[in-house]
Design a protein that fits this description.
- The protein is 41% helix and 12% strand.
- It is an alpha/beta fold.
- The strands form two sheets. An eight-stranded mixed sheet has the order 3-2-1-4-5-6-9-10, sandwiched between helices. A two-stranded parallel sheet has the order 7-8.
- Strand 7 (226-227), helix 9 (237-243) and strand 8 (259-260) form a beta-alpha-beta unit.
- Helix 3 (39-48) packs across helix 10 and helix 5 (90-101) packs parallel to helix 6 (130-151).
- The longest helix is centred in the middle third of the chain and has 22 residues, at 130-151.
- It starts with 12 loop residues before the first helix and ends in a 6-residue tail after the last helix.
- Belongs to the short-chain dehydrogenases/reductases (SDR) family.
Length: 323
């Protein structure tokens, strides 16, 4: 990357935001998945110190209110807009997008952070497996519906951004199983495999979105690192995280692993959203707040797979994604 602040494993979200305060000022940003003790909350909290508007989302209105209050208590001047969003439901996604599209302000940055991680097999109302629906198909539809809002923020010197919070798990397994995506089968379901597939899909979507928009939108994906968040306290997740040695029998983080703090974990998201050095690197993958395309697995970066995933996802949502 070109000259500018050097970031590392220990860089915090506040440090990144301070470095790019001029890029954040005046911007309207939407962050999905902002419940307390989450990466999304930390991302929104830090951005809210400088941005014109931060839209926070969650499927539970009461928890969303707690996040709003926590940010406003720390940053009284913050302009926070809470948006109820259920990414596992096409109807829920459409309702939330319509609410944002009805407002006058453009949208400069969309951060697709929310995820249903390591959940038990369950079909959504639309007949999809919950993890792939919430982590990939829902964000794809949400991004598609908000694209006019994003394009409205473009200027001769600014290109709107879409950020997909992926994971190092994008490199695991063999990538997206299109049969599982279109025809979910509980007999073949694995929480870990579905998680890795969803995270691979995030990277592929960022690549294809950047390509198809032809310079109108810059999209990025990232691995935030290992962070002990509210995901680690969910009943569905604990057995998986214990099986891979991340969480002990006491439910606490296992010592000796390369854990990041919540603020260190959110740093890469803030960098992906605002670092001007990324302007000429659409579709890039970041880790430790720095471009790390070399860490992308072939199945998470293959252009043919990215194009196929885009077409299949358009078929699932029943409409074309146009710019």
């Amino acid at each position: 990357m070109s000259t500018g602040p050097a970031f590392s494993f220990t860089t915090t979200a506040d440090q990144v935001a301070t470095a790019f305060v001029n890029e954040i000022k005046g911007k309207n940003v939407l962050v999905t998945g902002t419940s307390l003790k989450s990466l999304g909350f930390e991302t929104a909290r830090v951005i809210a110190k400088h941005a014109n508007l931060v839209i926070i989302t969650g499927y539970n209105a009461e928890r969303l209110k707690l996040s709003e209050e926590a940010i406003k208590e720390e940053i009284p001047q913050a302009n926070i807009y809470p948006l109820v969003l259920d990414l596992s439901s096409f109807a829920g996604v459409r309702k939330a997008a319509a609410e944002i599209n009805a407002q006058a302000e453009p949208l400069h940055v969309l951060i697709n952070n929310a995820a249903a991680s390591f959940v038990d097999f369950k079909l959504t109302a639309d007949g999809l497996e919950t993890q792939l629906a919430t982590d990939h198909v829902g964000p794809f539809l949400f991004t598609k519906l908000l694209t006019p809002k994003l394009l409205a923020s473009a200027t001769p010197t600014y290109t709107p951004r879409v950020v997909f919070v992926s994971s190092a798990a994008q490199a695991l397994g063999t990538g997206v199983d299109f049969d599982a995506l279109e025809h979910p089968d509980p007999a073949k379901y694995s929480k870990q495999v579905a998680y890795a597939q969803a995270k691979s899909a995030n990277c592929l979507t960022a690549i294809e979105l950047s390509k198809r928009s032809e310079g109108k939108i810059n999209a990025y994906s990232l691995a935030p690192g290992m962070i002990f968040t509210n995901v680690h306290e969910k009943e569905d997740s604990i057995p998986v995280l214990q099986s891979i040695g991340h969480v002990g029998e006491d439910g606490k983080a296992v010592d000796g692993l390369p854990w990041k703090t919540l603020s260190q974990g959110a740093a890469t998201t803030v960098a992906a959203a605002f670092d001007p050095r990324l302007n000429d690197k659409p579709g890039a993958f970041l880790e430790d707040s720095t471009v790390a395309d070399h860490l992308l697995a072939p199945h998470s970066s293959d252009p043919v797979t990215a194009e196929k995933l885009w077409s299949v996802t358009e078929k699932i949502i029943g409409e074309a994604f146009v710019f």
